Amino acid sequence: MGSNESGSLVSEPKDPLSQKNINNAPKGRRIRLCKSAPLSDYVGFETGFASGPSTKSFFRNIHPSFRMVAAFLTVYLGLGTVCFYLVGHQLKGKKTNGVLDAVYFCVVTMTTVGYGDLVPNSVISKLLACAFVFSGMAFVGMTLSKAADYLIEKQELLLVKALHMNQKAGPIEILKDIETNNLRYKCIVVFILLLLLILGGTAFLATVEKLSLVDAFYCVCCTITTLGYGDKSFSTQAGRVFAVFWILTSTICLAQFFLYVAELNAQSRQRALVKLILTRRMTNVDLEAADLDGDGVVGAAEFVIYKLKEMGKISLEDVRLVMEEFEALDVDQSGTLSTSDIMLAQQPQTEK
């Protein structure tokens, strides 16, 4: 998406091919796409198109979100298991195994499912449950959702590759498609995962917990929506082992689905606004508002900034902060940035 040339935002096009295409166009300054991030590097890193064996260890190749999730989940479940195992006799309800029940109770508390099949029955256990429900909700919201989003992005890539398989599209085309329809593909992926989790949970409850298909589906819906009536739950030892993983995955998956739907709706409204702004006729009032330096003429950069501001993508405060950085780098106050400006601006920092 970016140009291979570096330079100022506004400049004469130097590419011979592009120059040939604009020979008959009115002469003037034009905007070149900035080289903010090399697209080939991004494609290779994010989509797995980079060639050559990796020299990093397996642990270092794991995404930071998953390392963070593993650390927090280990601490949360480890501490919770120890605490609720020690006060296990102060929990009333259907019990199977002391350690398993403690882990199961932690997961049910963290996801706010709250079946009621295991409930605190003393002052200490109730206070512990209050502490773990708040910390568990914060953990799910801040940490697990990020890891789930990263995992869904990877599945999204597989989906896009499958859709473009017959078209023999390259990594650049695939990446552009992902950038354009990112949220739509995420909704599709998470919806498919959600269906698989619902079907898997229903089948497990029907076969292992011996519930009817209706009751099994009813329990699944009550669980993933964190409704948790409690009349149907996981009561066997095998069921609670399954529930530890399934409840955590299914509740987060549903939350991510609703999040993507909301973001997709907001994106659709934003695109409609952009289309309206780009098709609206420019007036003298707009021309005056776009004239940032007040010289009576609107340059390409001023026009771009004005349109972006109308679209809600930037604000006047954003422009002010960027201009402050520009003025700080423009040491010779020439109104342009050069290599000497950058070197002079960095000189005091290197001397320190």
UniProtKB/TrEMBL annotation:
One of its GO terms (molecular function) is outward rectifier potassium channel activity. Residues 72-152, 193-264 form the Potassium channel domain. Keywords: Calcium, Ion channel, Ion transport, Membrane, Metal-binding, Potassium, Potassium channel, Potassium transport, Repeat, Transmembrane, Transmembrane helix, Transport, Vacuole. It is found in: Vacuole membrane. It holds the Pfam family EF-hand_5. It comes from the Eukaryota. One of its GO terms (biological process) is intracellular potassium ion homeostasis. Coiled coil: none annotated. It is a multi-pass membrane protein. Residues 1-24 are annotated as: Disordered. The chain crosses the membrane at residues 66-87, 99-118, 124-144, 185-205, 241-262. Residues 286-303 form the EF-hand domain. GO terms for cellular component: plant-type vacuole membrane; plasma membrane. InterPro entries: 2pore_dom_K_chnl, EF-hand-dom_pair, EF_Hand_1_Ca_BS, EF_hand_dom, K_chnl_dom. Belongs to the two pore domain potassium channel (TC 1.A.1.7) family. This is Two-pore potassium channel 1-like. The lineage of its organism: Eukaryota, Viridiplantae, Streptophyta, Embryophyta, Tracheophyta.
